[in-house]
Structures are given as structure tokens and as C-alpha cells.
Design a protein that fits this description.
There is one protein chain. This protein has five helices and no strands. With 132 residues, the chain is mainly α. The protein has a domain of 68 residues. Helix 2 packs antiparallel against helix 3.
């Protein structure tokens, strides 16, 4: 018999399927804090799966992503209406993504408040070298 580490949150009915197939599964029920942490990890996992699928498979992956989002919202003690309200507020302030605007780079002065923020996140916003 071969044993494989899963170490991840699974859908409720998957455990039953595993047992029905004769698998000897070691599992536990997560605490509230562990559940939140695992939902956050699952969110990243599902988002990565969306990124690498064709259009047909993307819809299925979006359904998985939405399920994780729904569970996370619920686990945090919020309602979907809370999220919709925040989404509306953010769209009114900053807009949506529907105009497909893609910023390649930005140049700003040293005294611009965003300079410190961008410089403080070099992995996300690498600074272009001025040397040639």
C-alpha cells in the first residue's frame, strides 16, 4: 500500500468517495482559525487553476473559486450583500476592470507618496534600472 500526503482542505463529499474506493484516509476537522487559513490557501490554489485552463474548463474552475469565496465570506461571518456593497463602493471610487487598462510602467517623483509604496514592494513592482 502506498501513502500520499494531501494536507489540504477538500470538498465535503470527497471524503466519502475516497472511503468508498477503499482508501484508508487520515483526516481531521479543522478549528475555526485553521479553516480560515485553509480557505485562503484554497483560494490561491483555485485561482491558479483558473489561470491555466482553456475557456471551457475556466467556467468549472470559476465555480470552484466561487465556492471557496462563498465559504470564506461565511466563515468570516459576513453576508454576500456585504461584499456586494464593498464592491460597489470600490467600483465607484476606482472603477472596474472592464476597460482592460494594463499599465506597463509608471514614472513618478521621489516625493510622490506612491514612490515609497512601490519601492517597498520590489517583487511586485520592480524598479527599472536607469543605467544603460
Amino acid at each position: 500500500m502506498r501513502t500520499f500526503w494531501y494536507n489540504k482542505l477538500i470538498r465535503d463529499k470527497v471524503l466519502d468517495s475516497m472511503k468508498e474506493r477503499g482508501e484508508q484516509v487520515t483526516y481531521r476537522i479543522l478549528t475555526d482559525d485553521e479553516y480560515l487559513e485553509q480557505l485562503r490557501l484554497k483560494l490561491i490554489e483555485e485561482a491558479q487553476e483558473v489561470a491555466f485552463k482553456d475557456r471551457r474548463q475556466t467556467l468549472k474552475e470559476l465555480a470552484d473559486l466561487q465556492e471557496v469565496l462563498d465559504c470564506l465570506i461565511d466563515a468570516l461571518g459576513h453576508q454576500h450583500e456585504d461584499i456586494a456593497k464593498l464592491q460597489t463602493e470600490k467600483n465607484q471610487k476606482s472603477g472596474s476592470f472592464k476597460k482592460r487598462i494594463y499599465v506597463e510602467s509608471t514614472s513618478l517623483s521621489d516625493d510622490n507618496p506612491w514612490t515609497e509604496y512601490l519601492a517597498g514592494h520590489p517583487a511586485q513592482y520592480p524598479e527599472q534600472s536607469t543605467k544603460r
